[in-house]
Amino acid sequence: MPTDGPSWDDLRILLTVHREKSFLAAGKALGVATSTVARRVEALERALGRTLVHRGNAGVQVDAEALALVGLGENIELGLEALRRDASDATVAGIVRVSVSEGFVRPTTRVLARLRVKHPALLLELASESRMADLARREADVGIRVARTGAAALVERPMGRAHLALFASRSYVERRLPTARLGRDAAGRHDWVGFDRGLERLPHEQWLRAYGATRFVFRSSSFTAIEEAVLAGLGIGLLGEAQSLGIDGLVRIETDERPPSAEVYLVFHRDARKTPRVLVVVRELEAEIRRLIG
Question: pLDDT tens digit string along 137-156?
Answer without folding.
Answer: 778 899 998 888 888 889 99
